[in-house]
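dumping the sequnces here before i forget
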Amino acid sequence: MTTSTAPPDTRPQPPFTGAERVLLEGFLDLHRETLLWKCAGLTDDQLRARAVPTSTLSLLGLVRHLTEVERGWFFDVLPYDATPIYYTDDAPDDDFLAVDTVPVADVLARYRAEVDRIRAEIGAVPLDFEYSDPRGRTFSLRWVYLHMIEEYARHNGHADLIREAIDGVTGE
Amino acid sequence: MSGPTDDRFEPPYLGDERTILAGFLRFHRETLLWKCAGLSPEQLAARPLPTTVLSLLGLVRHLADVERSWFRRGFAGEDALPIYYDRETDPDGDIEPPPDADPAEAFATYRREVEAADAAARGHDLDETFVSPRGQTISLRWVYVHMIEEYARHNGHADLLREAIDGATGE
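..and the predicted 3d for all of it:
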């Protein structure tokens, strides 16, 4: 397999010092941009490919899933309608799995729009803000930020290996 | 396929910054070990995916050196040189183990480094800083968040490696 050239890396890096909020937002944004960077320069078919043979994951499936994750956590805080858009109770993994015919450009556009919307509004909510979910668990926004960072980072780890399997491109 | 028993620590949903950071870091340290649990030395050393050089053994060695480099050598200024690699002669020596690398040694070293990392951070404020070899001023807060995201990313690698080895999955 020929290794392609990695797409240009214009991702903003979080500062090395600063207040808690600045670092949390910086690392979260780094991972949002990393997901998109791992998708950059690929065809629609490549984005749909389950490129790691023992896994059902694809890059497009990860984008769909992370769109739901952003909505699911931040829309509870904001609070907006967080009804899932890519899966149902009967097909709870469709965000990951139903990637074969969905319009790729629409998925990427929807992801960017949801993130932009969240970015524009979440800054007003304090990190100590607490809310409870339908299962009766009470979270702080601080926990949500760290969970988002770790969930993104974990999926970017999946994306690392999927991308490498597609065209050999690697990079942190 | 069912994987190893999961009795990992759960980070608390509420609490101050230090509690939540330490909680997520502990969860990811335990997740790395969970992804390795119940496997033979051959399985741990295996490169189960054809398109990557990564192995679970390589990840354990790498993360032992990552803990050491940020908490001990970096933040605490200890004279704690890299264990498994040499920046000039063998920069990937941690993550690409030699054929005779011993998993038991790797796990013992890893556990030792985690304890030493925690000791280096204990009692220090998250806003305390150190200067890196490249001249960057870095806070303990940055180190914690970076460790969490680096662990989580490598646990993502571990997810796919483990699944390829024996089908075991799980967050």
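Chain A touches chain B through 42 residues (CB under 8 Å).
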